[in-house]
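Input/output pair, single chain:
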Amino acid sequence: MVECVGLNPSVEQEKVGLCLLIGSTSNRIDPNLTEIASCSGQAVMARWSGLLKVPLFPGSRSHYKVAASLCISPSSQNPIVPSMNAIFFNGDRVRGTGNPVIEKLSDLETIAEIIVSKLGENCNAWVIEASKFNGPFAVYKDFIPSVNQWGEPESYDPSGNSASTSTVSLLSSCLKEVKNTVSSRNDEPCGSEALGSCLSHPKTILFGFSKGGTVINQLVTELAFSEVKTNIVSSQHEPNIIPTSKESLLNSITEIHYVDVGLNSTGAYITDQDVIERISNRISERPLGLRFVLHGTPRQWRDSMRAWVGKEKDTMVNLLDVESHKSGGKLSLCERLYFGDKPANMQMHFEVIEHMDIS
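Output:
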């Protein structure tokens, strides 16, 4: 089932070649990288891929595992400014199932590979795992100001901008680590380069998978209550590989993907009418539109033991539907159900990562 309301896709899905590297536990650059055409039509791009473990802030005790797949120059091996940054927040851990599909799609680097294959080689992919787990349960305590011991949200509060601030800081730590790794193999210092004639200020696309949807909800709330500052981007003369402030992050978000999100408590989706109305008003005041895509399976949307998940999803869809008709095409919505003719199971919950249609 695919239902699209006011669809106005903001992502070009041009396939410009393939040279994706997936490392195991180390960062690596292939000396035989194939050059990939940039959006200027010149062959100027290759890829760096690896699994990082970085602090949230310099000196912080919180360390995050992040799988990164980045555009680089094949000549200098410096990071290149992409057309977009795709940020994927992962969910709880599921281990010991013996299911090869679940094991494969639980791997952060595999997810990064999938994201790049869907969005095209002009994007950077960042796949983030929570720094803290309570057993199998991911606890994004640095991103959400109020969570219980199992990582379930008690509320979404825009004050403090915890999610946007933490996201910018974490990406900065990741990029610094990548540059240090690249510089150690180069004679010249590692800088950054623009990707041909591409926009020098990349768009941001957010993905929240399962428990990772709680971080997306916090970011949506912060976006709803943030101020529109149209000069944030235009005042920056140097191209930035990643957003460098919470304002630039929030202003650059063009798509938000909920990927089979669900909780053992309420709070899987935004059901606050005020937040959705503020989002609509916020988007109407800026150049970039915003597209919501809700991807789901029977594992979450038809779980009779957690009926509130499907009800919350329906509430959010209805609220977004109303606002999309008011927005003149600036706010759009897609709802997509996968494996709808199959009984709910854990495998489909992970398979949706590979099967999700983000066109």
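The chain has one domain: 2-355. The radius of gyration is 19 Å.
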